[in-house]
Amino acid sequence: MGVEETGSTAEVSAASGGLPRLADIARTAGVSTPTVSKVLNGRADVAPGTRARVEELLRAHGYRRRRGGAQSSKLFDLVFHELESAWAMEVIRGVENVARREGMSIVLSESAGRLTPGQTWVDGVLARRPGGVVLVLSDLDRTQRAQLTSRDIPFVVLDPAGDPADGVPAVGANNWLGGLTATRHLIEFGHRRIAMLGGPSRMMCSRARVDGYRTALETAGIGVDPALVREGNFHHEAGYAAGRALLSLPDRPTAVFAGNDLQALGFYEAARELRLRIPDELSVVGFDDLPLARWVGPPLTTVRQPLVEMAETACQLALDLGRGHRPAATRVDLATTLVVRNSTAPPAGR
User: Fold this and answer.
1) 280 in the same domain as 199
2) What is the pTM assigned to this prediction?
């Protein structure tokens, strides 16, 4: 059993000996001992301010729920900062593959665009005691990490938006190499005016792709033209808006590396409106290799980010951690590969 209420006491394990009794923690926090026990058990019926105060004291004194105690549920908690894309569906497919194999169900949440989920979500996770939590393009703040860790609820960040804190397990892809490979592909065709549309600069994956693009140009002795580097979001509309602007320049680019496939399709639309033919007059490379990349006209050359495999790896890592296994690595970057289709060719006149 984990933390058990017996009258006014609770049974826990501790990181070190000589800890104060829970009654002492309760007295310092100005609450009852059963309230401290509720916090330890992840019960939701504790006021947020009270919970934060008790959590801080418990963390300071090294209390945590005893490993192997309360049984985890047969659930995966999967949380996205936003769900409106085919990209998210690929991640869900990967999680479903592992959940099916393990006989588990999935609780799917969206944090409404925030990169850190709210406390209401954390309270739900503490009450459900899932077998694992996967946070997509999200992370937890220090208090939230401590809450899950104290209940032995394993969590993994998938495709982290920023650099995860020390000790936080994470699974991603080699975005820098993907950006380098995509840009070199265009350079090898003879392109020199190569535009880049990145995603939000706050996202680590976007910065890495832009850095790979810059490195490829600089290594080839091609200067980076700031006018050809644009920042947007990872949606079709951003690709379209950047495409209209870039393709209307007096000295327009002959090729574009888009930060993801949806942006690339936005470029397609802008090129179509301006009567530019792909790949005869404009080469386009995307990133992700979503299923739709094969079916657009012409089929899109893109960098394959193994989203399904990334999700499977994150889930398995969470399960291993929850079962007390010590994996060889808790930071994993899977390889990206260039998938060449029909949207790239030498520039016109070559």
Assistant:
1) yes
2) 0.80
